[in-house]
Amino acid sequence: MSSLAKLVYLDAQASTPLCDEAASCMRSYVEGDSASERPFGNPHSDAHAVGWRAAEKVEDARATLAALLGVRPNEILFTSGATEANNTAIKGALAFRREKEGRDGIVTLVSEHKCVLESCRYAQRRLGARVTLVPVQQDGLVDVERVAQAVDENTALLSVMTANNEIGVLQPLEQLAEIAHAKGAWIHSDAAQALGKVAFDVTSLDFASFSAHKSYGPLGIGALYVAHRRRVAFEPLLHGGGQEGGVRSGTLSPMLAMGFAGAARMLAEHGERDRVRLQGQTQLFLQGLEKGGVDFRINGTLRPRLAGNLNIRFSGVSAEALLSRLSGFCFSTAAACSGGGQEGSQEGSQEGSQEGSQEGSHVLRAIGLPEAERAASVRIGLHRYLKDAEVVAAAEAFVEAVRQGG
Known about the structure:
The chain has helices spanning 20-30, 49-69, 82-101, 114-127, 144-150, 173-182, 254-292, 319-325, 354-359, 362-366, 371-375, 388-403; strands at residues 8-9, 76-79, 105-109, 130-134, 155-159, 186-190, 207-211, 222-226, 296-298, 309-314, 329-330, 377-381. By secondary structure, it is α/β, with parallel strands linked by helices. The chain folds into two domains: 4-17 and 270-403, Alpha-Beta Complex (Aspartate Aminotransferase, domain 1), CATH 3.90.1150.10; 27-264, Aspartate Aminotransferase, domain 2. Helix 7 packs across helix 12. The chain starts with 7 loop residues before the first strand and ends with a helix. 51% of the residues are buried.
């Protein structure tokens, strides 16, 4: 195993480095010279000052995240991550609307994250939902007219990812929201890759899911945006003390919430500048490949696309061969939670299903790539802490590895 300090990390769609602001916030929370001085309070204990202090930290973090999104603090519910938030929104909205209004339809895209697709399959299998999977085009974008045809008067929810976690394409959310609302459907978006990195109006949506570690925050915490107009009585996934407005039981971690808030403040200040810089580094990487004369194709449209994301297939060389040759670089052959992805210089992901490990990337299949081209595809995820020199060196290393063939 190589020293982590010597590795060049190119897998920001799997997880981003923890930003200094997030780390500082978490350190400040646990400081203290003795056990009694270090914070240990339960933020849901409202009978004494120890609990109040912990609750204040959680509510400060909620307000900070809400400010980044331009929404009310009471529209933010903390979760363990985007997977829980996605499950809560999809299953909760379907169950509520089917019972109250008889709406039993869910419309989503074939290229959605596995946790969205599996939530929809569960809703179909156990909750009686009608699930419609809308195909995407070869560039990864959805044909808006096909969505309009799929959404009908009995659709409870349309769920569409903001930025695809594998190929980075950005779907036309505001246009899709108009289509959904015109039919009385609600719209949800898995925005895990987008927080602070993509300019979009979350208030046009009814629900949106976020994960801190995709946006320079800590692992283990996420959030669900629930528009005030949709404050419905979701059936919770987790039953217990009724925290987070009765939607998400369980004791929240003030330290993780503060880390999430630290990342949100950093993104509010630097997000736009980072987008511009990552777009430039993306071009720098592609120029390096072109200069090296290797044959490659980009999977998914380059515009509109998440800054810093590239999903590339190389002619005549497998992704597995590149992983073995580029031991100093961390990148993926597919999404870390598809089950089939492996990350360079790291152990393969423990997440995902056996189905994923056998079939590989469902997103690359969805855009029509045959097996040989899927097997030759890698995902590159640039981030704000990469230096230009590292990006140039990475491109040169890929060129050399591809030239070896196989």
